[in-house]
Design goal:
The chain is of the alpha/beta class. The protein has a single domain, classed as Rossmann fold, CATH 3.40.50.300. It is built from 10 helices and 12 strands. The structure holds adenosine-5'-diphosphate and magnesium ion (MG).
């Protein structure tokens, strides 16, 4: 469904993404992981065709560079890391922005468009908030709203840049479970940038570990979430625990293990 071939992004004379090739199958979930500044956001933005790149990005077999912006928006929904929230806009109007690529020219949203948005808002626990102004929402509510807008877009490819960073433990799982349900139900292709490696391993079938703009490792969670792979890239004291098939990744203060072993 998504195919990147030798993707490169150079901005202001710096190479930010340096030859990434990978593919995500339809109804697959790829998590892009890696330290700060690795090029995760840049990669996602290139897939959404929001910045210039070389190499190719194919979505559903089509070269994205040959698609019209509106056509691309019907196929790819993108949630940025720091979305813009007009303070005075209402929740329902914000969600309706997701319907824009489906509206005929100069035509406002129909009852069906409102229904789609209302359903998604309800599924994300925002059903009672439709007339609230964005300025009155908490960080977690905003993050769920931006996900609602992307889901209302009903594109087969969902690109999410750290979609759950502001959510508490429960809401985080709820939001990702919803994405997973829709992935199975509608055969969505999902690409998420996630900081939490444990969370990435629980939801994605494939992890792509970026480091300095390059692909340091790619494969199943079991393949990527290994101490010898992660320690090099994160420059941290990484620990991986297998909890009945779920890999839990933690980091500790340097030296704390030695103390334990002595003690
Ligand atoms: N327009 C730009 N010009 C130059 N450098 C940039 C630009 N945008 C981002 N960068 C740099 O590129 C690197 C990768 O950024 P980004 O993809 O946002 O990383 P992350 O993996 O944290 O999402 C960072 O060091 C960032 O400062
Ligand atoms: Mg980022």
């Amino acid at each position: 469904m998504i195919e990147l071939t030798d993707l490169r992004v150079r901005l202001s004379g710096t190479t930010l993404v340096d030859g990434i090739s990978l593919s995500v199958r339809p109804d697959g979930w790829l998590a892009i992981v890696g330290p700060n500044g690795a090029g995760k956001t840049t990669t996602l933005r290139a897939v959404a065709r929001l910045l210039p790149f070389t190499g190719s990005v194919r979505v559903a077999g089509q070269d994205t560079r040959r698609m019209r912006r509106r056509e691309l928006a019907r196929v790819v929904a993108y949630v940025p890391q720091q979305p813009h929230f007009p303070a005075d806009m209402t929740v329902i109007d914000y969600a309706l922005l997701g319907r824009t690529p489906h509206l005929a020219l100069l035509q406002g949203p129909s009852a069906a468009d409102r229904e789609i948005c209302a359903t998604v808002l309800a599924r994300l626990g925002l059903g009672a908030y439709t007339e609230r102004r964005l300025a009155t929402l908490s960080g977690g509510e905003r993050q769920r709203l931006v996900l609602a807008r992307a889901l209302a877009q009903q594109a087969p490819v969902l690109l999410l840049d750290e979609p759950t960073s502001a959510l508490d433990l429960g809401r985080r799982i709820d939001a990702l479970e919803l994405v997973d349900e829709l992935r199975v139900e509608r055969g969505l292709t999902v690409v998420t940038v996630v900081h939490d490696l444990t969370l990435a391993g629980q939801f994605a079938d494939t992890l792509a570990l970026l480091h300095e703009g390059r692909l340091a490792a790619v494969g199943s969670p079991a393949h990527v979430l290994r101490v010898e792979v992660l320690s090099d890239v994160y420059d941290a004291s990484v620990h991986v625990v297998d909890e009945g098939g779920h890999l839990v990744v933690t980091s500790r203060r340097w030296g704390s293990w030695a103390t334990e072993e002595i003690g």
